[in-house]
């Protein structure tokens, strides 16, 4: 793991992800335990995890070359996580090994009664630092890259990498789960943002989710779109548009636009549907459109675990961005991929391959 390989298929876009690798210990239970209770698990699995590793595993299974930049402990857990990624087709040759480190790990309790999961995270060490990123490594790891994926967990190193990517005109997608120290500098460089349900309002202080999405586009002029994920309720996206609108057109209130779009969205559909507003002038001199995407309705008999569904969604978006999918198609595709992930225990067990019949409509396989 000392030097970057050049194994990508010529002509195919490469996705680069930077972040932490984590080992997940997953156990399912009939219902979440109460304090001081002893219960039996119904199933158990040990599997690699972490946002970056999960998303890149998704990209690799969908058929695109991808590589990861991370620092892992030189212990049995670290080696296992790297080998697992390699077996899925992720290029790990730019990973660094820390001789005296300890691996990050998660305990994940999956509650079959409520279909929820609880994560208990234990951080490892040492972190990936800017001093680890030599100029030659940065050039090697960014070679041939179409999109860079970051999430701010190794923020100082990710910022240095993102600055280099920005200087080379490589688009950056950020996954913003929660406010972190130093995240502002990183998100300033992003072309695309995927956010948790609460992040837009927490970050902007806006009074509503739609107004928070608009505030993000106003504050981040480089941002082309921002997506807010809503779990079983799908997602909402606000896209910045370059299309001209009539100079006399009045500004549209984003909250009213969102409410109107909700009213015309078919939330009863079993499969994901995408409903888009017209391109309009919004408050703050932003021209854009709002998009609502519903989530696939998974039968209770098939819903196993939601761990990693957001990472699967992100991985599918990375695939769509690299392959030039139309926006509406990309969002419904990502929703289908996320639903596939929920049908197995762990973040990677049920991630689909590009030959999956559920994806034939999108990939023509």
UniProtKB/TrEMBL annotation:
The keyword Transferase applies. CDD domains: ribokinase_group_B. GO terms for molecular function: kinase activity. InterPro entries: Carboh/pur_kinase_PfkB_CS, Ketohexokinase-related, PfkB_dom, Ribo/fructo_kinase, Ribokinase-like. Residues 23-240, 295-352 form the Carbohydrate kinase PfkB domain. This is Carbohydrate kinase PfkB domain-containing protein. Pfam families: PfkB. The keyword Transport does not apply. Belongs to the carbohydrate kinase PfkB family. Keywords: Kinase, Transferase. One of its GO terms (cellular component) is cytoplasm. The lineage of its organism: Eukaryota, Viridiplantae, Streptophyta, Embryophyta, Tracheophyta. It comes from Arabidopsis thaliana (Mouse-ear cress).
């Amino acid at each position: 793991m000392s030097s970057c390989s050049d194994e990508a298929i010529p002509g195919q876009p490469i996705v680069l992800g930077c972040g932490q690798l984590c080992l997940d210990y997953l156990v399912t239970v009939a219902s979440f335990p109460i304090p001081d209770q002893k219960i039996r698990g119904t199933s158990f699995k040990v599997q690699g995890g972490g946002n970056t590793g999960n998303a890149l595993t998704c990209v690799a299974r969908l058929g695109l070359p991808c590589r990861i930049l991370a620092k892992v402990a030189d212990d049995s857990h670290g080696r296992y996580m790297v080998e697992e990624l390699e077996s899925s087709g992720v290029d790990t040759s730019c990973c660094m090994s820390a001789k005296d480190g300890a691996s990050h790990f998660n305990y994940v309790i999956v509650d079959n009664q409520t279909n929820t999961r609880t994560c208990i995270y234990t951080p490892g060490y040492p972190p990936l630092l800017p001093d680890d990123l030599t100029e030659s490594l940065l050039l090697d790891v960014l070679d041939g890259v179409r999109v860079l994926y970051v999430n701010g967990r190794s923020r100082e190193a990710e910022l240095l990498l993102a600055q280099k990517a920005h200087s080379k005109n490589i688009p950056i997608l950020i996954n913003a789960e929660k406010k972190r120290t130093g995240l502002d500098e990183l998100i300033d460089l992003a072309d695309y943002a995927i956010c948790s349900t609460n992040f837009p309002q927490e970050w902007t202080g806006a009074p509503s989710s739609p107004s928070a999405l608009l505030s993000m586009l106003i504050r981040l002029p480089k941002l082309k779109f921002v997506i807010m994920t809503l779990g079983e309720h799908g997602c909402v996206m606000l896209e910045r548009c370059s299309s001209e609108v009539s100079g006399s057109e009045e500004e549209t209130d984003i909250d009213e636009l969102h409410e109107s779009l909700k009213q015309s969205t078919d939330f009863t559909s079993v499969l994901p549907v995408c409903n888009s507003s017209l391109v309009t002038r919004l408050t703050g001199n932003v021209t854009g459109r709002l998009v609502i995407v519903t989530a696939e309705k998974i039968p209770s008999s098939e819903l196993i675990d939601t761990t990693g569904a957001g990472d699967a969604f992100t991985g599918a978006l990375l695939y769509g961005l690299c392959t030039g999918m139309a926006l509406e198609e990309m969002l419904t595709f990502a929703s289908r991929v996320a639903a596939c992930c929920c049908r197995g225990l762990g973040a990677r067990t049920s991630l689909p391959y590009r030959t999956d019949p559920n994806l034939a409509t999108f990939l023509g396989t």
